Amino acid sequence: MAARAQVLAPWLAALWWGSLTALGALVVPSLFAHLPSPALAGGMAAKLFTAQTWLSTGCGLLLLLLHRPDQGNPETGRAQSAMMFMLLGVLLALLSEFAIAPRIVNRENLRLWHSVGSVMFALQWLCAGVTFWKMTRKSG
User: Fold this and answer.
1) Distance between CA atoms of 4 and 7, rounded to whole angstroms?
2) Percentage, residues of the chain above pLDDT 70
3) Domain tally for the chain?
4) Which domain holds residue 119?
5) How many whole angstroms separate alpha carbon 18 and alpha carbon 99?
6) What is the pTM of this model?
7) CA 38: distance to chain centroid?
8) What b-and-e string marks burial along 61-98, b requiring 16 or more CB atoms within 10 Å of the CB?
9) DSSP one-letter string for the chain
């Protein structure tokens, strides 16, 4: 991987994982704690989760582009071991946005779809965390 890509990749992974962490652990719980109604908090949370989807997708795709196997970089092993997590994280973000979120917004079996969405968010957080860990650990 080129020198710039080596510097950029950990920052992208940190942004992805950090934004998921902040949204899930701080921002959304704060909305429900401080806004006057759950409906208002839920509507705002939905908008923030949509923004997070695009941030996650952008970070994940840029990381995948930076770690294309044909670049012949010396860190190929580490990058390729993280690629599965990058790809799965992006897929989870997009599935959450286009398959799960519409069901939650339409209040279809809300308990089920909210639970599925929460699990998918947690799995995406894990994928981003593993990617971040793999991008920042020392090789050797």
Assistant:
1) 5
2) 89
3) 1
4) 3-136
5) 24
6) 0.91
7) 24
8) ebbeebbeeeeebebeebbeebbebbbbbbbbbbbbbe
9) --HHHHHHHHHHHHHHHHHHHHIIIIIHHHHHHHSS-HHHHHHHHHHHHHHHHHHHHHHHHHHHHHT-GGG--TTHHHHHHHHHHHHHHHHHHHHIIIIIHHHHHTTTTHHHHHHHHHHHHHHHHHHHHHHHHHHHSPP-
